[in-house]
Amino acid sequence: MKLLQRLPSGVVRRLHRERYKKMTWLTPVPDSHKLTDQDVTDFVECIIQPVLLAMFSKTGSLEAAQALQNLALMRPELVIPPVLEKTYPALETLTEPHQLTATLSCVIGVARSLVSGGKWFPEGPTHMLPLLMRALPGVDPNDFSKCMITFQFIATFSTLVPLVDCSSVLQERDDLSEVERELCSATAEFEDFVLQFMDRCFGLIESSTLEQTREETETEKMTHLESLVELGLSSTFSTILTQCSKDIFKVALEKVFNFAVSNIFETRVAGRMVADMCRAAVKCRPEESLKLFVPHCCNVITHLTVNDDVLHDEELDKELLWNLQLLSEITRVDGKKLLPYREQLGKILQRTLHLTCKQGYILSCNLLHHLLRSATLIYPTEYCSVPGGFDKPLSEYFPIKDWGKPGDLWNLDIQWHVPSSEEINFAFYLLDTFLQPELTRLEHYAIGELEMSRDDVQQCLAIVHNCLIGSGNVLPPLKGERVAHLVPSLVSLEETKLYTGVEYDLSRENYRETIAKVTRKLLRYILDNSEDDTKSLFLIIKIISDVLQFQGSHKHEFDSRWKSFNLVKKSMENRLQGKKQHIRALLIDRVMLQHELRTLTMEGCEYKTSHQEMIRDLLCLSTSSYGQVRSKAQQAFFTALGTYNFCCRDIIPLVLEFLRPDRQDVTQKQFKGALYCLLGNHSGVCLANLHDWDCIAQTWPAIVSSGLSKAMSLEKPSIVRLFDDLAEKIHRQYETIGLDFAVPEKCVEIAVLLQKSAHPSSDFTGLCSEEIQLGIQRQKEKNAEALRNYENLVNMLLDCVEQRNLPWKFEHISIGFLSLLLRDDRILPVRAIKFFVQCLNHDAIVVRKVAISAVAGILKQLKRTHKKVPICPYEISGTPKPSSTQAGDRPDNQWLHYDSQSLPKTKEAWESCCFVEKTHWGYYTWPQTMTVYAPVEHQPKLGRRRDELTEAEQIIFDHFSDPKFVEQLIKFLSLEDRKGKDKFNPRRFCLFKGLFRNFDDAFLPVLQPHLEQLVADSHESTQRCVAEIIAGLIRGSKHWTFEKVENLWKLLCPLLRTALSNITVETYNDWGTCIATSCESRDPRKLHWLFELLLESPLSGEGGSFVDACRLYVLQGGLAQQEWRVPELLHRLLKYLEPKLTQVYKNVRERIGSVLTYIFMIDVSLPNTAATKSPRVHEFTTRILENLKPLMEADEEIQNHVMEENGVGEQDERTQGIKLLKTILKWLMASAGRSFSTAVTEQLELLPLFFKIAPVENDNSYDELKRDAKMCLSLMSQGLLYPQQVPLVLQVLKQTARSNSWHARYTILTYLQTMVFYNLFIFLNNEEAVNDIRWLVIKLLEDEQLEVREMAATTLSGLLQCNFLTMDGPMQTHFEQLCKMRLPKKRKRDLGSVVDTIPSGDLVKRHAGVLGLSACILSSPYDVPTWMPQLLMDLSAHLNDPQPIEMTVKKTLSNFRRTHHDNWQEHKQQFTDDQLLVLTDLLVSPCYYA
Length: 1490
What we know:
two-stranded antiparallel sheet; flat
């Protein structure tokens, strides 16, 4: 599916670049390499069929829709008709809703190409109206997905087309084309369509009311599905009305008005939907619509609130609520058009804002909010697809020309609403009238002068909040002094002001300041007197957040609009032409989003005292008593922290106050709140982990020492989880903070030059040298302070850990923090090094694990640099530099090979030998400058005394020279951690490698007895421990002198011998890793002791087959790391293994197979690669074939009759051959997945033998030999064949086809299927090979064995389906001739005679013909080619033939019916009436009662 989606997308991208893209610095595509129109057509034709099939796939039709969208851009005439053919029947069907949703989503993808028509597909637009009318039943309250896709479908087409009745043009103009005339007459249906759509929507609304969909007790809120339907309904209706002509709009407006005023809706679900429809109508043409709605709603509301008793009712009349809701929605329109109604609306607000019923006053608040927004915001007032709308007379303007037309980006002609002074006055009149009194009341309440119930406080706060978010755009930001001294800076830190089209009127009262002041007082009062009034606190949090942030839109609303804009853009974009060819509504939407983005840009604001006070209030709420209050306040708190510069530095000390261990007055709730404030949310600031030394030097020690706080309780899971999350977040997000920041002198010089530059000229006055020096001085001071902070932080964390009563969890957290402070540019302070070394023997395993990693890191910090010298590899090898690059074994890299004649076994040889550690150097080519380590006298001193070590090194030296410390460490390291899951630990290895690298053999005397003791113990954990130490020893001895290395190997060789003889199932993996790690990136000549040890008779038989297999595994690990540098060792190993290939034990055979893979790994035949010196596959395989001759020549079946024990005395050649074959099978299976090249010619000669052995069925009860042969064939059939190997393989298949064993004949067919598929293009390039395969399959169709015939038919069907073979005349004639074979008449048999079971030759041939026809029919499962009807008729004639022919015919007909059922309406067009009659008789089962 992904391929089907991405391939057309890639072709469109390429075509765009070749034909439409502006010239850029990219190299232009030469004409010779551009796609021609014919190429595009061919591509579309070849991919369209699978895409059409994918429309109904189970994974969803989205990928198919995207593919069709791109294909339709290239060739609409090839793509859209077949999609429509599937769509029309789907729109009629009731029983297959998935088919409808799938086809509609695909038509949405091709909508633009369909409506635009153009030269390729001029008749496209004529399909639009029939599609729209037929889609209307999809607005179905009972099927949510169908309803949503229908809305999307209708909205998409409406956006593209002006809904104007053009039928009158037919009388006026005679210059129209045929298609235009057809479209003009069709547009008369637009009005009918709009009205029918509205009826459908009204039906949907009536069945969505609360009474219809809920029980009494259930929630009254909208469900998620209902809110999606509401969104779909309102946006679709809005789109339709935006695109309507004035006449159609009037009819629609009247209809929706009558529906709204003649019913009373509940306000939760149905009411919202109707109000949305009314709002859509009013938005499109406000003047006409408001005339109808506003007076009606105002009259009803005034009438219903005449009596003052209504104001105090807890439950309001439904009619009043409904009209309030309607009025609040229809005022979301152009503010200028609302001004005539301001008095009426003001009166309504005065009557309803103070209703007692919460539902009532919330609706009234919404009205106030919407009035303010409409008057004060900047927004586009129309989204028509053509600038200026469609209200021009048809004589001047012909709308059909604009179907599917993109918007002109340079001439969008957006009609903006910009608040006029009249609207601003109206807005401030509303604020003075409704906001001011509420603020006064709240202020009096906050100072205790006025009694108010909680409900009244909440009502006041709701009014304040709605006024704030209604008028936020015209209220200037908060003023105040800048909070100074947070950071020293020589550069001005003032914020950049963005102009967003708003001129603030500073002469008026800034209600933002007043709201902030009153809310703060009120908050103090509520927290002191009624902290449990959480609803008021929720509103206060919203108000504080909006006072700080809100400038006209909310971030989360903007994000969702941005997301939906991108979805719509994707579904309708024209990526072929590009150049922002979007429809006008989308372009206007994008401009509006850009404007909103500018209003939201607040990051980098100056941090003022007013902000400081409010953020402190949020912190206070974030640590209050109620969880929900804390949670909401924290979200607002995090947003504010991310907005103002450097405010975190000011806030951190206040948060940490709650964690201080010496405070007695902190409650658990406050403690938890403070921890959440430190943790932050997933996308915002994390106070605990700021990238600043000043901050983490405060927060990290505070987190650790909070473990001693009275409020901390490890019994509370929530607090434990918080600390875990904090530690985990810090570990995940912490990035090393710089200590030494410097601007290079060169940069300063260039900057000075830039200042003086005349191009571009700047008003900036240049800095004098004193200022530059002052800046550099400041930076040095800052670096010194950072270093002090770093060392203080380490010391403070160590002080924390050493506190006596600190709980274990905090000790672990502290050690985790300390481990993060390891750096590569500064050695850890000595006190911390001592602490980590002691922690190696800590009681807790968690601490020990951290300490192991830390000490390994410390050792890396203490590593001394080793000098390198350049060398010339060509001088060493004595060969000239070649002119071209050639990979592989060449004369100039010969000196790197392992050569047992010239190994460095003496001190002189060792020191004169040039060791190259990196394995990849020299194989392809040499580095431009080849460096190796300098001789030992130029390297850092080895064998240093204690007084020659640094203080940090002395600490490590003292501890590891202490036998007790080492004994304890080894005890801990040889403990089991997680039973059965422990593996060789690379961190422990790094620790020991570092020890032996930095201190050479200083610790060997202490460790030696432990090593000997560990090796003798066969327990899993002790063996793992010694393997880690030995690997560390070998790798750590990289720079040791010859004497030290020689002594080391005198110690290690006996240890390794013992270890390998004690190896167990649990430990062989660890020893393999140990040896592989030891040999990684090491010159093999340095490790000759190890390789010689490993090659000492690995298959000695001592210890049984398991130990043999393990020794081979360990040896393989070492040799595999060396790759091409040890050809001699590989030859020696192969020579040793060859006589032993006839192993009896399965585990040894498998291991030998794996080892052989690595022995031949380097034998690759690639261009520019020299022949390898390592063993070669073809030589080895030739020798093997010689040994397997007895089996190849024998005719009888090969049975696995070898007992699983090594028999005494000589066994016959055949038995030896079977044993050898088993091992060879293991090798071929292993190398199929791992080797770099595919089977060589000699290996293919083994195929006849495998065909002979492999069983037909998949059955695990078969013996190992048969199972392996089957698996091996499967893997070999998937391998790449070189063209020269094709004749050989086909020769083998032909030879096997003549075999006596039907199993072999059957198996070649399964092999053939896979082989052809994997090497399709190689075969298609060789006509002779294609003919050979065709002959082979047709020959096997006539095989005497039924199973072979059926498999041949399956193979033929597959080859036909992938167009490898074609269904041509000769093939059809051949099958028809075979079908006509006369069958022998049935003879009456004597009752006593044996039944003749062997089928006659004629029956086989006749069956072959039927199978051939069957294969042809089944090769086209999704269409009906011209030849198929006749073949079906031919086949039906054999329905009454004897078995197995009858069975074949029935199966074929059954499969035909199954695969062609979905599109039978389309397929049956290919048959004549007579053929259909016959076919119906065949396919429909006879009635039981007939």
